[in-house]
Structure formats: C-alpha cells, structure tokens
C-alpha cells in the first residue's frame, strides 16, 4: 500500500459516502485467451546457493546462519512499473547508500502489470531487464530481495495499480456508467472494486489463471537470482464485498473459500519450477491495522512458506489527521499484539514471518516504537518506503526517506536515526534476545551458538550513534572489528553450549 492506513478504517466509512467522483473508462474490456504455461526467458544459470531459506521460524543463509533483515520497500507504481536508472529512480548510488547504513533487504514491486502486460502467461523481457538491472546492483551490495506482486485497488481505472490492462474487466452493471473512484484506500470499498476482487478470487474471465501465470513467468526468470529471499504472492489482498466482516471478525470464510485456495494454487505452480525459494503469503488487508485474527492454514507437503505481514498502528493515522484522540504511545501495545499474532500464525502454517510493511510516516516516535518491538520479537522488517516515487496512492511525501528523491543528501535525518540500528545481520546459532536504544546507541544480543555453523555472527554497527567511537563486550566469545562497520563474533571453543552475549555502547 501507500497511504498505508487501510486499517484505521472506522473513520473512513463516512468519507466514502461523500468523496466519490466519476473517473475515466478502462482502456480495454477483456483479456485474450489465457496461456499460463508460455514463458519468455533468456536468463543464464546462476548459483542459487546465495539465497535465503526457511528453517523453522528463521531465514537462514548459505552458511546456516539466521539472517535478520532490515530494509525498505522499493515499489514503482507507474508504468513501466520499475524504477529508471536516474537519480530520482534507482542507481548504484542508491545500492551503496543502503549498504552504508546497514540495510540488508528490500521488497521489490515486481508487478503483474509489468510481468505479463499483453497476454496471460507471456512475459515481457523488457520488464525483466528493467528489474534485473536493479537486482544486479542490490546483489552486488549483498542485499536480500523479496519479489512482491504489488497492487493497490486493482488497476489505474480505480486510482491504483497492479494488474495489466487485459485483466481490467469492469463488471456489470457498473460498466454501464463511468467508474466510481475515490482516494486511496477508499476506492477499495466501492461496490465495483470489491466485485472485481470477488471475480478474481472466483477465477471469472480466467483472472486467477493469469495471476498464477505471471508467477510462473517470474519464477522462471528469477529462481536462481543471487540474494533472492522469495516470492510475495499478492500485496494486501482485498476480499471483496465481504470486507465488513474482514474488518470486524477477520472473515474466516474468505480465507477458506478464496484466499487459501488461491495461495495453494499459486504456490503449487511455483513449486513446479522452483522447489527451493520461500513463497510468502499475506493475510487479508485489514489484519495489518486491526487486532483481528487471521485464518491461514498449512499447505499439505509445503515447508518453505513465509508469512509476509504488515503493521500499521491506527493511532498514527488518527494523530496524522489532527484528531484529538490519537495517542502514538498506544502503538506499543498494538505492535506487540501484531508481532505476537504473526509469530502464532506463521508457526501454524509452518512459515517464517517477516514484517514486510510498516512505517509510512515521518512520526519518528512511531518508527522508534515499531522498530523496538520488532527487536523484542526478533522480527525482520522492510520499511515503507525508500523513496516516494510519485506514488499515485499516496497523499503526501511522508512515505519516503528523502525530501527530494533525486538527492540522497536530503535524507530525513531524524527518521534515518531511528531506522539505522546496530543489529545482528547474521547469527551463527539461535537468537534469544536483541535490543537497541536509538537515543543512546546501547545494543545487546544474546544467542545460543550452533557448533555446526563455522561462519561468524555478523553485527552491523550504526554509523550514526557513536560519534566518539564504541566499545564491545562479549561473554562466551570473541569479537573482531571488520571494515564496513561490521563486527564478527565467534564463540569460545569451550563454550559452544552456553549463550554468547554481546553488548555495544559508546565509550
């Protein structure tokens, strides 16, 4: 998403009733015949060993170390749905910037609209090349990549993006009049947009076939991509006309009848091509901003799933609107609830969890709270967003990290200080505790070493929090400073069964 507050939504119902205006007709009325098995790809074989795999609740690297991801969303929502090689887009300077500040992961918006723009199942090599340029830059800096079939409100017809023009089929009787549009996220709630999603889940017009076919194309393109951490099947799935029950009770029937079957079908299609990489499932949209249950179930025979979940505290939205009852300190409780629920849901479906969206604000206190709670739960995260990129579903510039996307020196410094953290990027064992104080720079890590892992634990040390240098203390191991603000920790030879405790602080 972008305005990212789909979840505060009790306020928005009234706005829906007054804020609706007619928009333009869709360019095309229907798809060609779907051919989900046809793929265009010229990718040469790459070594797939430098990718992340699921082990229990963790992501692990090729050395068997637990990887904790801190990074950003990179989603270009306007055609051609990939960032250009310009200063305002994404260049080698951006990849170096991410590396310099310790960000080791990204969520890339590889949109259905870009993958198969003209016909179901037929990939566009030009789109692959646009993203491959970015992926090569990221892989060159050792940055992990999650591929995200991003969508907001289905298509440009409704003010959003996500699906190709051929998948934009306006349902009757709404197609007798110009489409109703409303600002994001209100457009979801119009009867027409919700009906379109219901038809998608029901595979009317072969739309679900087309989505699965796009993932088949993407898996063939990128299954051997170095630093891949898997496929996020769909961003913030909207469950259609039953959305009121999704808001209030979590809409279990929608999971059973629509979301679960679609996810299992897409996962099976990917597994026919790629048996190794993580396939990420997202809960229905409202679960990112309301304390409601989710109802994903295990998939028979599938052990390489991820739970890609979102965390948007409704209090931040209320406060941003100047409403007197918004209290950002309540986000402590909300974020803890959502983190705990994500751990429970992911364990139930045999998946690794990751907080793949959060933030979307310049409220540094809210950012500080969510990042601290993620540390409490040893949760990897991808912040929304790196750059604003003229996002059509965003009403302001609070989403990105820069006042000017073309100038990296315009970074929002207070926001950056909360996001740049000393943290363990790779743990040679099982993490048990991690914390970081964004005011003082005090850091603590406790883990149980795994004697089978010979690579060191790697800790990134923030370049923003120790102006006079820093000191390291290790119990049960030794630490060696490395270039690039890294610290390598190895357990003492006679203490591999006991915990290793690392603290980093100013002098």
Topology:
Blueprint: H1 12-18, E1 21-22, E2 53-55, E3 58-60, E4 66-67, E5 70-74, H2 92-100, E6 105-109, H3 112-115, H4 125-140, E7 144-148, E8 180-181, H5 191-201, H6 207-222, E9 228-232, H7 243-248, H8 252-271, E10 279-281, E11 305-311, H9 314-320, H10 331-348, E12 351-358, H11 364-376, E13 381-383, H12 413-419, E14 423-427, E15 429-436, E16 443-449, E17 457-460, E18 471-475, E19 477-482, E20 486-491, E21 500-505
Parallel strand pairs: 5-6, 5-13, 6-7, 7-9, 9-10, 10-11, 11-12
Antiparallel strand pairs: 1-8, 2-3, 3-4, 4-14, 14-17, 15-16, 16-21, 17-20, 18-21, 19-20
Helix pairs in contact: 6-8, 10-11, 11-12
CATH fold topology of the largest domain: TIM Barrel
Question: DSSP strand (E) fraction?
Answer: 15-25%
Mean pLDDT: 91
- Summarize the biggest pleated sheet: 8 strands, parallel
Strand arrangement, largest sheet? 12-11-10-9-7-6-5-13
GO biological process, one term: lipid catabolic process
Keywords: Glycosidase, Hydrolase, Signal
Domain Glycoside hydrolase family: 61-386
Signal peptide: 1-26
């Amino acid at each position: 998403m972008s305005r990212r507050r789909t979840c505060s939504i009790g306020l928005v119902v009234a706005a829906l009733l007054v804020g609706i205006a007619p928009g333009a007709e869709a360019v095309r009325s229907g798809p060609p015949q779907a051919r989900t098995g046809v793929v265009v790809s010229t990718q040469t074989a790459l070594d797939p060993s430098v990718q992340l795999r699921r082990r229990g609740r963790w992501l692990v690297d090729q050395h068997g170390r637990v990887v904790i991801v801190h990074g950003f969303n990179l989603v270009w929502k306007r055609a051609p749905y990939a960032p250009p090689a310009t200063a305002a887009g994404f260049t080698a300077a951006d990849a170096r910037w991410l590396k310099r500040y310790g960000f080791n992961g990204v969520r890339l918006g590889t949109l259905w609209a870009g993958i198969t723009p003209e016909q179901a199942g037929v990939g566009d090599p030009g789109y692959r090349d646009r993203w491959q340029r970015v992926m090569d830059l990221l892989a060159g800096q050792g940055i992990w990549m999650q591929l995200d079939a991003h969508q907001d409100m289905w298509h440009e017809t409704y003010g959003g993006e996500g699906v190709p023009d051929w998948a934009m089929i306006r349902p009757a009787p709404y197609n007798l009049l110009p489409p109703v549009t409303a600002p994001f996220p209100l457009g979801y709630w119009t009867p027409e947009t919700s009906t379109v999603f219901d038809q998608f889940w029901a595979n009317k017009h072969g739309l679900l076939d087309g989505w699965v076919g796009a993932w088949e194309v993407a898996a063939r393109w990128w299954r051997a991509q170095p630093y891949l951490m898997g496929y996020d099947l769909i961003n913030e799935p909207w469950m259609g006309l039953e959305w009121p029950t999704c808001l209030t009770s979590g809409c279990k029937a929608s999971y059973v009848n629509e979301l679960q079957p679609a996810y299992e079908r897409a996962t099976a299609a990917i597994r026919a091509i790629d048996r190794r990489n993580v396939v990420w499932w997202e809960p229905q949209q409202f679960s990112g901003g309301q304390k409601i249950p989710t109802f994903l179930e295990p998939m028979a025979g599938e052990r390489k799933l991820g739970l890609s979940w979102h965390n948007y505290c409704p209090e931040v939205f209320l406060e941003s609107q100047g409403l007197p009852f918004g209290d950002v300190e309540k986000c402590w409780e909300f974020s803890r609830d959502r983190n705990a629920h994500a751990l429970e849901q992911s364990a139930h479906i045999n998946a690794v969890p990751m907080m793949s969206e959060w933030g979307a604000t310049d409220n540094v206190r809210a950012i500080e709270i969510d990042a601290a709670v993620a540390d409490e739960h040893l949760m990897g995260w991808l912040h929304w967003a790196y750059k604003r990129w003229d996002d059509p579903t965003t009403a302001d510039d609070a989403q990105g990290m820069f006042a000017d996307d073309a100038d990296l020196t315009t970074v929002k410094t207070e926001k950056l200080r909360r996001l740049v953290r000393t943290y363990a990027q790779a743990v040679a064992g099982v993490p048990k505790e991690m914390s970081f104080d964004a005011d003082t720079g005090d850091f603590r890590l406790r883990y149980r070493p795994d004697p089978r892992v010979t690579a060191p634990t790697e800790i990134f040390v923030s370049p923003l929090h120790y102006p006079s240098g820093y000191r390291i203390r290790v119990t049960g191991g030794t630490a060696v400073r490395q270039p690039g603000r890294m610290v390598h920790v190895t357990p003492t030879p006679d203490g591999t069964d006991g915990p290793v405790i690392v603290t980093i602080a100013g002098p």
